[in-house]
Amino acid sequence: MKSVESIKKMMIILSKATLENVYAAFVLANGARMEGIEAEMFFTFFGLEAVHRKKLDHLHVATVGNPAMHMPTLLGGLPGVESLATHMMKKEMEKVDMPGIPEFLDILTASGVKLWACKLAMDMFHYKKQDLYEDLDGVLTVGDFYKRSSGEGVHMLFI
User: Fold this and answer.
1) pLDDT in 10s for each residue of the chain, 159 residues
2) β-strand 9-14 against 38-43: which pairing, if any?
3) pTM for this predicted structure
4) One-character DSSP codes across 67-118
């Protein structure tokens, strides 16, 4: 019987800052730490909004092109539908005591999750490090992130 290698580190890449994607990534990173697994997150392209100081409190649920919404695309694009869906999702999250994005970022950093911004995306969107969450561990190139991902027991997840 082949032995199963344990997971030692989760490397989570977040490329979209919709409310549902950000919380999925945060819950997975937090869950890894709770299980004693190292975790690092790499925020690239629109995922950077999850750590952008002026944007992280204003993330929305994706209503257009999201089959899990169980509504026609046309309906999801109507004015106010995205705001309503976001409001409803936040209410449900409050009921299960889910922390807000800033508080969740604090929880992640306190638990040892490393948070990295993508240099290419930073350059593309003309962001500066001071635009981002203050406890961000730094800005990395994709190559630097891959170097941090080397070794046995490392798993990479793209969200």
Assistant:
1) 444 568 999 999 999 999 999 999 999 999 999 999 999 999 999 999 999 999 999 998 877 766 666 676 656 666 777 777 778 888 888 899 999 999 999 999 999 999 999 999 999 999 999 999 999 999 999 999 999 999 999 999 999
2) parallel
3) 0.88
4) GGG-S-HHHHTSTTHHHHHHHHHHHHHHHTTPPPHHHHHHHHHHTT-EEEEE
Q: Which residue has the tokens 């490397």?
A: 11
For the segment(s) 9-158, the CATH number from 3.40.190.10, 3.40.30.10, 3.40.1260.10, 3.40.1190.20 is 3.40.1260.10
Q: Indicate the angle between helix axes 19-34 and 81-95, nearest 10 degrees.
A: 20
- Angstrom distance (rounded) from CA 76 to CA 59: 16
| Of residues 13, 11, 9, 4, the one with CA closest to residue 35 | 9
